Amino acid sequence: MRNGKFVICVLVCTLLMVASDVFANIDQLSNMSPEWIRTGNRNAATDSTDIVVYNPAGLTKMSEGFHLNIGNQTLFRSPEHTFDLGLPSSDTRKSCEQDGPDYFVPNFYGAYRKDTLAFFGGVYIPGGGATADYPDGSVNTQFIGATTVMGSSGMFTAFKDDHLKASSIYLASEAGVACQLDEMVSFALAVRYINASNEVKAGATFIDAYGNDTVWKLKYDTDADGFGCVIGMNVSPTQDLNIGLRYESRVKLDFETDLKENDFPEEFGLADYKEKNRRDFPAMFGIGAEYRLSPEFTTEMDFNWYFQKQANWGKFDDGTDVSDQAGDVWSLGGTFAYQVNDAFLVSIGTIYTKFEWDNIAAYYQEIGAFEVLYTDNWHIGTGFAWKIKQGVTFNFAVGQTIWDDKTIEYLQAANNGLPPVDVQTENSTTTVAFGFDLAF
Description:
This protein is mainly β. The protein has eight helices and 20 strands. α1 (2-17) runs antiparallel to α4.
């Protein structure tokens, strides 16, 4: 029985220790407005107030007065992974997939321009913003359940009804000022505050030799906050060419775990768990170039680099940095827009995102990685901007993101002396977004 308690305690502590990593692969979102969903590229844009977050220095190109941008996205995500742990008390082969969409991913941006200055601010979600809902379990809950049964010294013979639900939101508040030096160059400087909050609910039913059920549930929150800065530059070498640049600094985030519910025995020592875990929000650099081919046609190309390796994401048991195993991330894309008439614009765009993994299997040791499941991906979006009347523009967009299918070794099995286990993964997301851009 002592060995059983030890195994369960280690597994539960492991789950808690990586609480802030349940959304480990959503540290940098780029879909922060409906305008981005229909184009995929906004780094050099100057046509809508969502550039507060994409090209803040470009705000000096907008008309004088107040500007507001309000939008929302609904995400229909389909991450799925299939595996065979080859363990007693676990299914021979099991497929686990996300249940339910994320209906509400909002954004709000505002700006006021007067002469050569533009003051701006925004509230948006640069990370997280989704729920990993696995009512029938995942590879991690299956592994924890099976190894708990094996290590219980006969206390349990099987398990069932394992489940995991984790919600995450990184809420950013930003405020700054942009200044136009001359007709060609503008600069912007902003302060950004990020408050990150995750909630995790997990559990399983364990069955003893007499067929009795024991239900154990675990619920906890993790919270962190920190400050960073944003620096922007906008350059217009000619009337038809505009270039936008942006750098976002790293934001230090030290997550504290607050245990809300724990059905595990008191001797496991989890009742007052307050462990802190470091997971910074990475720095990034973005550049874009927009070129007007004709009065009707506009094109833009963007490049982004996310400095994940510079962020502190803690260490694995062997002392290696988690962020080093993940590596940096970059993206490259382009878009075309056509002005049908004075009131109606249509656009289509795409962007490719590449994860420069140092060791993808090592990184996916983090509980939550298989549940969220982010790999190299293509985003294709389309939609329209309709100027309903002067100063009121309605944006609508539909986007599809497809991730590369990958087979990833499940190192949790190997780390516990079990035979190698491969996990087959696939993922896609359909996004529907709409919003209004107001000028007055």
